[in-house]
Every structure is written in C-alpha cells, then in structure tokens.
Amino acid sequence: MSTLEDISVRHEDFDVGAEIAALSGDGTAGAVASFVGAVRGGGSEKDAIFAMTLEHYPGMTERALADIVALARQRWALGGVRVIHRIGRLLPGERIVFVGVACRHRGEAFAACEFIMDYLKTQAPFWKKEETAQGARWVDARDSDDAALERWQEKQ
Amino acid sequence: MSITILYFASLREALGVEREQLDLPKGIGSVTALRAWLVARGSQWQPLSAPRVRAAVNQTLATEAAAVSDGDEIAFFPPVTGG
To answer: Is the pTM value of this prediction over 0.95?
Structure first.
C-alpha cells in the first residue's frame, strides 16, 4: 500500500477528486475516506459571514500536522494520508481543509480521518477571523472541539 | 539570554506587537516565569496574562512549566480555531 504523505498549507484551492484519486492510486487500499471543510454561508443577516481570513504560524503548522498524522499512523495501519489546509482570505462556500486517508478497510479509514480532523481543530496553529455586518471578529475556540479530542485520548 | 517571541491572532492585535527579540535577565527558566516577566513590563501587556493564552516553545505546544533556554523561539496565542 502506498504510504504517500503529503501535508500542504497554502492559499490555493484543491481538487477533491484529484486528491482522492491520488490516494486510491496504486489500487491496494480497499478504502479511502475524506473530509472537506468549507466556509459556512447563509445564516441570519446579523450572523452572515462575508469572508473569513485564516492566519497560521508558519513552521509550527507543518510540524503540528506532521505530528498529528504520525499519531494516527501509530493507531491504524494507514496507506496514503493527505492533509491540505488553506490560509488567507476565503469567501462563503470556499473550501478550507481536506483530509484524506487510504487504508485496507472502511472502519479504520473513517476513524483515522475523524481523528486527524479532531486533532487538527485543537492542536494545529490556525486562527479564523470572520468579517460580518458588525465588523471583523476572531472566532472563539469551541468546547465541543476539546470534547471531540478527549474522546480519542480516553480510547487510547 | 536572547530569545525570540511571537504573538498571533487576537493576542497579536490586542498587544499591537507581532515579534520581539529580547535579552532576558538570568533566572527566567520557564514559560510561566517568562510570561510573568513580559506582563510586568506595563499595562499594555495585560492581554498576555489571560489564562486562555497558549504557548509554544520552538514550534511545539508547551505547558506553563516548559523550560525556556537561550536561542529559543517562544510563541503565545489564543486557542486555535482552524479546520
């Protein structure tokens, strides 16, 4: 099974189909699971987001993502893993993050994909600033994200 | 002891500072001690004392007890909100 490891932090968008095809590449992975996160559109006029700016800590970001993938590899026998996170100013509906995992069976693929996202949300140094009708505001961290992480730590 | 300090996101904006290169007096050996010393410089540094502020030493998340040494890159920032 391919163990392609690719972590990318960048401004440019990604092609979801091409990323999944690359993970399925050599045909030995029985399962590929992926997650795509995007800037939420809609909402009431008061809460509507015009745009979002993603800031990060260059250097630490790539290191943190590599550490998260390494942790996932300790728990499951993974093939290819791909993590892409965009930075800069993004509009509603635009993609922010892609996580794709290839392995032998679906259970591990789903679990590893969720594990990587839960760790990314709480450990990787990214910060979101939203532009709304009321002005710009930094997004607050959510307790539910910490709870999602603790779930994995209990299962260890 | 010379260290580099970086501030990110809402903390950077609250302090109005992105980066500092500092020569620290002897005896500042931990993140806690460093943070206390930085805050003691004046009221504009108060945002740094908020309990929610996290720290990284040499680009790795660190506890308050983590050691600080000559040449380190220390970062302070609010809880992360990526993904």
So the answer is: no
Average pLDDT over residues A125-152: 92
Q: What are the backbone dihedrals phi and psi of residue B60, each rounded to the nearest 5 degrees, phi first?
A: -130, 135
The pLDDT tens digits for A96-133 are 999 999 999 999 999 999 999 999 999 999 999 999 98
Nearest-angstrom CA–CA distance, A47 and A133: 8
Positions of E strands within chain B:
2-7, 19-23, 54-57, 60-62, 73-77
Show residues of chain A in contact with B60, CB under 8 Å.
60, 63-64
Query: Looking at the complex, does the CB of residue B50 fall below 8 Å from at least one CB of chain A?
Result: no
Name the residue facing B61 among A59, A123, A139 (closest C-beta).
Answer: A123
Interface check A129 vs B, CB under 8 A: yes
